[in-house]
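[09:14] KT: can someone run the structure on this one? pasting the chain below
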Amino acid sequence: ASDETMHLVLETLQAAVKA
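[09:31] RB: done, structure tokens below
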């Protein structure tokens, strides 16, 4: 996975955890 994809996935994961 490219850095951009990795960053997007990490952000989505963080949002899901925060939710």
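[09:33] KT: thanks! The first helix runs from residue 3 to 18.
[09:34] RB: yep, looked fine to me
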